[in-house]
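Section 5.1 Outputs to date
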Amino acid sequence: MIAFVRGEVAAVTLNSAVLEVGGVGLELMCNPNTLATLRVGRQAMLPTSMVVREDSLTVFGFLDDDEKQVFEIVQTASGVGPRVAQAIVAVMSPDDVRRAITTEDVKALTRVPGIGQKGAQRIILELKDRIGPPVGTHHVATAGHAGAPWRDQVHQGLVGLGWSSKESEKAVDAVAPEAEDMPDVGALLRAALRTLSKA
C-alpha cells in the first residue's frame, strides 16, 4: 500500500497530478481542491490511497490525512466507489461529511453528483456509527493568484465531477461575483456545485 507520495510536481491535468518520485512519474487522481495547491516544479507531499481493481491500479492523492480517511470510509458503504467517494471529498470538507452523516442530513449528501436520495440514506444508515463526529479540522485551498485561473480550475473540477461544459460555465459565471472576496478555489467549487444542485 502506498501511504503517501513526495516529489516534484511534473504535471497537473484536469483531474490528476504527476509527481516525480525517484525518476518515475506517478500519476495521482486528485480533486480540484488538491490540484489548486500544486505548482509544476515545486515539491509536494500528498497522502494517498491505492484502489486495486482487476483491470486497473489507481492512486488517489489528497490534501491531508483527514480527507484520505473520509475517502476510504465512505467507500465501505454499498454502492460508493472511488469516483463517488472522490466527488464527496471534492464537494464537502471531511467535517461536513461527518456532520451530514451523523445528523442524517440527506439534502447535504445529495448535493454530490452521483448521489441520489436513496444513496444518501444508505450512506447514512451504513456509516452513522463508524464515521465519527466532526473533529474541527479544516483546510483551505487557495488559488495562489487572483483573476482568471480560478475560473479554469472550477470549470475543470465541475467537468471532472460529471457536469457538462455548458452547465459548468453557467455555474462559474454564477459564482464569479464571490471570487473577489473569496479567492479560495475549493470554496468557489462548492458554491458552484450548490448553484448546480438548485438548477
